[in-house]
Amino acid sequence: MDLPPVGLGTMGVDDPHVVETALDVGYRHLDTAQIYENERVVGEGLASSDVARDEVTLATKLWIDNLAPEAVESGTQASLDRLGVEAVELLYVHRPRGGYDPAGTMRALDTVREQDLTTHLAVSNFTPAQYETAQAHCETPIVANQVEFHPLFQQQDLLDHAREHDYTIVAYSPLAGGEVFDIPEVQSVAEKHDTSPAAVAIAWALSYDNVVTIPKASSRAHLAANLAAADLSLDPEDVRLIEGIDREVELFPE
Ligand SMILES: NC(=O)c1ccc[n+]([C@@H]2O[C@H](COP(=O)([O-])OP(=O)(O)OC[C@H]3O[C@@H](n4cnc5c(N)ncnc54)[C@H](OP(=O)(O)O)[C@@H]3O)[C@@H](O)[C@H]2O)c1
Predict the structure, then answer these.
(1) Residue 197 belongs to a domain
(2) pLDDT greater than 90 at residue 116
(3) pLDDT (mean) for 62-81
(4) What's the CA-to-centroid distance between 251 and ligand 1, angstroms?
(5) Which CATH number do you get for residue 82?
(6) What range does the domain containing 42 cover?
(7) Over 90: is that where the pLDDT of 7 sits?
(8) Within a domain: residue 249?
(9) What is the pLDDT of residue 1?
(10) Cβ 175 under 6 angstroms from ligand 1
(11) Which one, out of 1, 48, 219, 234, has a CA that is 20 to 30 A from the CA of 28?
């Protein structure tokens, strides 16, 4: 699946104008989830934008209370109704918890795919072993694993696994929820390139060939800056400096 390098994370977005502005600025990948309780907001922003529906990759995630096999189809349909669309392009298992049962849930997702309620299937917060188990129970290729990925939580093993199995890592919380502004290594790379730590964190995530990212932003200025960060090219020593950070902060532990 061909995802744009930078998409919009919408956790905490409660105003359709943010989504409309993002599309106006050039975003073409919108990421929401049932648990964010803003699918209606995202749908409204998409509907009121001048950007055509078929230009946008719309992603949502089934929360753990909709992962029991018998809940998958109705849960998906409820999301589509809130979003105001016939189908999404990307449907995720948000976490391998709650009603998640690899065989039953993944078979139900195959069915939802066959019904064209989604174009692609994906998972989120899965370990390599959990990804492989899910794929073994599902005929549809699992095209992405959305995971926490930023300079304080690097997950290099998962990048290798994604490369080996040919799926995309969708890096969430690429700005570590704002903490990247306080990391000296990121600050020094930002100073060198005369840019912001946010841009460096995004460019660093994108320096890996199988990674795209979904920073959340609210203002037009932040939205535009994050999208433009895809054009910032870091030097190999910048990437190595950030890779060498030995502190770890996981914002969303299982
Ligand atoms: N799959 C999962 O389990 C999971 C879990 C967590 C998150 N996610 C996804 O990942 C997305 C992003 O993660 P996140 O919301 O945790 O954090 P994030 O994207 O790392 O950081 C967002 C924060 O950074 C600020 N910001 C954004 N651009 C900036 C810029 N250019 N300069 C300065 N500050 C900037 C935002 O403020 P403003 O809003 O004021 O611009 C916001 O406070 C979420 O929205 C969600 O879609 C997925």
Answers:
(1) no
(2) yes
(3) 98
(4) 12
(5) 3.20.20.100
(6) 8-181+209-228
(7) yes
(8) no
(9) 85
(10) yes
(11) 234
- Tell me, rounded to whole angstroms, the distance of Cα 53 from its chain centroid: 19
Mean pLDDT of 206-229: 98
Q: Is residue 28 part of a domain?
A: yes
The answer to whether residue 254 scores a pLDDT higher than 90 is no
State the distance from the centre of ligand 1 to the C-alpha of 178, rounded, in angstroms.
7
Mean pLDDT calculated for residue range 229-254: 96
Q: Is 213 in the pocket of ligand 1 (CB under 6 A)?
A: no
**Cα 37 from chain centroid (whole Å):** 16
The predicted pLDDT at position 194 comes to: 98
Residues 6+ apart with CB under 8 A from 6: 27, 29, 202, 206, 212, 213, 214, 215, 226, 227, 229, 230
Q: Is the distance from CB of 82 to CB of 43 less than 8 angstroms? A: yes
**Atom in ligand 1 nearest the alpha carbon of residue 225:** 31
What's the average model confidence in pLDDT over 221-244?
98
Q: How many CB atoms lie within 10 A of CB 184?
A: 10
Q: Is residue 2 part of a domain?
A: no
> Is 90 exceeded by the pLDDT of residue 80?
yes
177 CA distance to ligand 1 centroid (A)? 5
Give the residue, out of 173, 180, 183, with the most ligand 1 atoms within 8 A of its beta carbon, to mutate for a pocket test: 173
What average pLDDT does the structure give for the chain? 98
Using CA atoms, how far apart are residues 192 and 187, in angstroms rounded to an integer? 9
Residue nearest to atom 14 of ligand 1 (CA): 173
Q: Ligand 1 in contact with 252 (CB < 6 A)? A: yes
CB of residue 198 inside a 6 A radius of ligand 1: yes
Provide mean pLDDT across the span 125-129. 98
Q: Which are the catalytic amino acids?
A: 36
202, amino acid identity: I
* Cα(84)–Cα(44) distance, integer angstroms: 8
